[in-house]
Amino acid sequence: MTPPEVMLAVKVLFGAPVAAILFGFFVMRRVKPEWTHLPILASCAAVTAAAACLAAYTTAKHCLELPVWTWAVAGDWGVAFGLRIDGPSSAILAMVAFVGSLIHVYAAAYMKGDKGFARFFLVFHLFFLAMIGLLTANDYLQLYLFWELVGVSSYLLIGFWYHKESARKAALKAFMTNRIGDLGFLIAVLMMIYAYRSTRLQTVYEFMAAKPSIYTSIIALGLVWAAFAKSAQWPLYYWLPDAMEGPTPTSALMHAATMVTAGVFLLIRSWPIISAVDGLPQLIAWTGALTSLGAAIIAGTKKDIKRILAYSTVSHLGLMMLAVGLGELGTAAYHLIVHGFFKAALFLCAGNIAHAFHQSTANVDETGGLRREMPFTYGCFLAAALSLAGAPLFAGFFSKDAILDAAWHHGGGLRVIGMLIAFGSAFYIFRMLFLVFHGDRKEQSRGGRHPHEAGPEFVLPIFALSFGAVVLGHGSIREWVSNLMTYGMRGVPMVLIRLKPYFDLPGEPALPALNWTVSAFGTVLALLGAGAAYYLTMVDSGWDWRWRGGFAEAVFESDFGYKIIVGWGARAVSWTARFTGRVLDKNWWDGLLESSSDVLREAGNALASSAQGRVNDYLWWMLAGSAVLLGRVLR
Amino acid sequence: MNLTAVVWATTGSLFAIGLAVVTFRRQLLAMLLGLELMLAAVNVALVHHAGLFDDAEALAVVALVIAVAAAEAVVGLALILRVRRSGRGADASVLTELRG
Amino acid sequence: MIALAPQAALATGVLGTLSLGLLRRPPALALRAIAFTAVAAAMLLSAWAPAETWSSLILTVDPKSVGWQYLIYLGALPLALWIDGEDDVLTALFLGSTLGMSLLASARNLPMLFIALEFMSLPAYLLVARSRPGPRGLEAALKYFFAGGTAGALFMLGLSFYYADTRVLAGATTLNSLGQAGAALMSAAALFKLGAFPLHWWLPDVYEAASPEVSGFLSTAMKSAAVLFLMRLCELAPEARFIAYLPAIGAVTALVGSVMALRQERLQRLFAYSSISNAGLLILGVGAWAAAGRSADGVGSLLFFLGAYAFMSNGTFGFLKHAGVETREQLKGLGKSMPVAAAAFTILLFSLGGIPPTGGFMAKLLLLWRAVDANLFWPVVLAAVSALISLSYYLGMTRDLWFERPHGPESAPGRGAPLVIACAVGIVLLGAAPWLMEAVVK
Asked: Would you tell me how many other CB atoms lie within 10 Å of the CB of residue A409?
């Protein structure tokens, strides 16, 4: 039986954010909007405590599956809401809670004085709640509900400064792309209902074990498509760089640590389904690898600091996808967690920089030499950057190299791409480091602004995050994640032979031990990347990326994919519209519509005119009807 | 020719007459009579078969049907009287205000 | 005889109202109080029914009948609240009709079914005549009377055929041609009461002529009773062949109802056709239930539909009474003059149209799902088409309420707003938590 403190933790997990949002909406907004963040921060603390409790519970090898509420039942199908708190979800939940709370604290300082302060916090916390719901769902329909909610809050937050047209467009682009992905999710869910009469995770797993079929492929493809949209993989990645229009805390929480990782989480959850389809894991792995490489290259060419980090996120998501595709779910989850820490730290540093320049973001052309003026930010950035690049003993080293290790063992092209990614990520992050923090101060572009370190409330959260980015590589943490992932898929039927046999089997860790050869190789490449960055920024800073024109420019512009898709889509739609308008509509459809409404009207008139109101007529009809029925019955 | 056939013939024709009266005549009072005729016809059949199957329950049903028919007649008469007194006459073709 | 306590309560109510009528001037609202107390008491007593079932030759009190009674009382409650407190005969008629319905719920064999049918119909004819003094009420009552009387006669003819064929008055297992003919005739009577095409002609006239609250009563309680009538018939004549035709009849009825409602200008008549359309759905539901083996679970969707419909129909007719409107033209601009009531009305309209997340949507969904489960493809398609058609006038009325200017002088609103709002709330609750209904009924 579940101990009472766990039940309490579950209730707090959901109840605290709901209460905070309602309280903030109805009370604080009216009374004192500048204090809206207080109940919300309290809720964050409560949620973190609850998440920790649940993590402890699941570490003790328990898995919590709790039906909560049945909404509607029609025959043997019903819509039921419930919770599933097992290894993957509690591990990621712990990260989300912790990182999210820190970002909430940062946001309180960053957004101070903004007119929409209250609105920001309420939507921000709504997103937080939606993420919690997503991670603990035990039913695909419930997951879909929270998936959508996350998308909606993303839209609201990207377009937060709605008077800026670029923000509005970016929000719409993000939402539309998500919708395209959600179509896949919806198809998958409908297929589940049709084929299995249920959308509960456990039930679907069991069906998978029983008999995979054509539906499996459709469901799996739908889910993968949705995950690609949410986690910004090719070809649905173009929304993420534009999403940087939102305030930095948004970018840090949603588009680095949590929302975009929802896609990876979905794939982890759906692994029994996906692994049952031939070729799909390879597709995921290759898409992830190629996206990762491409994004890493693009990141090395951008000038807006938030955009560089956005592409970096795409790249790391690609790495997670690569890990998932290779069946290394534990590694993917671990990288998800570690990435959450260092990416959030990097984004918040970018926020500091932007804030120092009194802008919403900053351009590398304007910055330079900031390490003297903003030493704390520099220190945190450096730590997080080293973790990202995979410097030995930093957390990122363990997580990233585990993935590279898996790619290496897979052999072939992925091996090479993995190494190239190692090179590329070190390159772009150190390029950013050097351009922003080292070098000369660019007095002209500063325009008289004196950037300086903001107060402790800006730095402390980043410090905590960077600290995490460094120490999470410790063996105990790795072992904890490994245990959680190993025992986390408890209850998944073992008949799923394509599943890596370490699930539910003691002794085989979900995080394999590090292969030092590969790691050494990776570290060397990272050093090369950092060196290249140093050379190209500090030494030969005049290199103005000459090759950045024409085709290359088109390719590297993130909108490339979007424009192609939208362009072709628009052309197809307009052609269809013209065809239907001219041919079908005028001749067929209009006629059909008009005639059908005419028919209805005539029918009504005919029936009505036959009803003169005489009771005898009524009886006639009655008798006629009864006679017909009699005749048919006696046939 | 056995009794059952005769009974059915009687019932059938009485019922048919009653039905025809209700459907085709316009005077409300006549229609009411037709209604009563139909129920009486059914009673004939029921009584015969009750005797045939030696079933007392069916006879009880007949008694109840007679009672119901009487109640129906009361209600019908009340309504018809009302209509007569309202001055529009007791004719079905007059009652055509509600239509469509 | 604790088992028949609800009926006793209603009977006491009848006697009470009639006795009160003997007084020269009965105290105001006393009759309404008696009516309400009687119905409420019946509701409570039926919910509190003893666990043991009791049955005689002709009546039975078991959990199933209790559930149906509950539904009937639910439909009757609003009229009990709103009935004209001055007219003792009216109240007695109302209670009498309700009593007949509750007897129908407990009926055990076919003759009892007939008796209960007439018991609930005769007062209803008079109720219609008396509820709105004037020629129209009389005319509608007469039409109702003759049509209903003929239906009753057909039922009895059918009963005699059935009896002659099977020697029993309930539950025969094999039916020869004579018995089949009998069952078919009896079903014709049931379908008449429900308002199936082509036996529906009485319904629009009656609903139009009676005062709105009475129409509400007829459309909810009487409809529940009629559905129960049909279902009992299916149970008591299980091998009857007419059962197979029910889905088709239901679908056609639904379609006809929707189409005819399109061109109605008078609101009570419009809602009468809407009622016919819903009755078509119910017939379809009964057909599906019978096709799926008459299981106890299958009844759930029908009960839910009727419960939801009780809210919807009483609410809409209640709004008509409250706003004092008669035609669609008069609806225009009411959103401005009585926003809360109009909002509640809009919710009810949406529910009738089957727009999520209202109870009406849930009800239609459950019913159609069951029908699909029973492999009834074309009837479901037709029913869906009829629902689509019906949306046009529901949404049209919504548009009239909110987006059009009022044309004539505003009528003074009555005091029925709380009822309308209560119904709207109820329907929304049902939409959000359908299991509430099941819990209650079980």
From this structure: 14
Q: Among A510-519, C159-168, C191-200, C235-244, whose mean pLDDT is lowest?
A: A510-519
A245, two tokens? 């229009």
Report if residue A69 sits inside a domain.
Answer: no
Spatial distance between the Cα atoms of A364 and A374, rounded to a whole number of angstroms: 15
CB contact under 8 A, B95 and A619: no
Cβ burial B22-60 (10 Å sphere, 16+ → b, else e):
bbebeebeebbbbbbbbbbbbbbbbbbbbeeeebeebee
Over residues A524-538, the pLDDT tens digits come to 777 777 777 777 766
Task: Please indicate, yes or no, whether residues A361 and A418 belong to a single structural domain of this protein.
Answer: yes
User: If pLDDT is split at 50, 70 and 90, which confidence band does A552 have?
Assistant: very low
Hey, what are A226's tokens?
A: 């949705």
Distances (CA, A) of B13 to B16, B61, C151, C260: 5, 22, 18, 37
Give the residue from C329, C335, C331, C283 showing the smallest Cα distance to C306: C283
Of all residues in chain A, the one with the smallest CA distance to C299 is A75
Q: Which secondary-structure segment (H or E) carries C324?
A: none
- Domain for residue A261, yes or no? no
Residue B32 confidence (pLDDT) = 94
Please check whether residues A449 and A588 belong to one and the same domain: no
Together in a domain, A467 and A592: no
As a dihedral over the C-alpha atoms of residue B39, residue B44, residue B45, residue B48, rounded to 10 degrees, the angle is 150
Q: Are A84 and A138 in contact (CB under 8 A)?
A: yes
Q: How many domains does chain A have?
A: 2
Whether the CB of A623 is below 8 Å from some CB of chain B: the reply is yes
Beta strand extents in C11-98 (DSSP E only): 54-55, 60-61
Residue A317 lies in a domain: yes
Touching chains, A (3+ CB pairs < 8 A): B, C
CATH T-level assignment (fold) for domain B3-91: Helix Hairpins (1.10.287)
Contact A224, A184 (CB under 8 A): yes
Domain that holds residue A455: 284-473+515-548
- Across the interface, whether the CB atoms of C146 and A615 are under 8 A apart is answered yes
With 0-12 / 13-18 / 19 or more C-beta atoms within 10 angstroms meaning exposed / middle / buried, residue A506 is: exposed
What are the boundaries of each domain within chain C?
Answer: 240-442
Length of chain A equals 635
Residue B82 has pLDDT above 50, yes or no: yes
Question: What is the Cα–Cα distance from C316 to A606, expressed in whole angstroms?
Answer: 28
Q: Are residues A353 and A299 in the same domain?
A: yes
Distance from CA of C160 to the nearest CA of B (A): 6
Place of tokens 């325009």: A447
3-state SS assignment for residue A67: strand
A311 contacts A556 by C-beta, under 8 angstroms: no
Helix (H) or strand (E) holding A464: helix A456-471
- Give the alpha-carbon dihedral of A52, A58, A64, A69, to 10 degrees: 20
Average pLDDT over chain C, rounded to whole?
Answer: 82
Which of B45, B76, B99 shows the shortest C-beta gap to C164? B45
Q: Confirm if C225 and C105 have CB atoms less than 8 A apart.
A: yes
With beta carbons less than 8 A apart as the criterion, state whether A493 and A209 touch: yes
Q: Give the residue from chain B lying closest to C166, CA to CA.
A: B53
Domain ranges of chain B: 3-91
pLDDT in tens, A275-286: 777 788 888 998
CB-based contact A484:A91 (threshold 8 Å): yes
The percent of residues in chain C predicted with pLDDT above 90, rounded, is 21
pLDDT in tens, A486-520: 665 554 443 333 334 333 333 344 555 666 777 77
A320 and A386 share one domain: yes
Q: Identify whether residues A392 and A453 lie together within a single domain.
A: yes
| Partner-chain contact C260 A607, CB within 8 Å | yes
Query: Residue C9: which of C17, C28, C54 has the closest Cα?
Result: C17
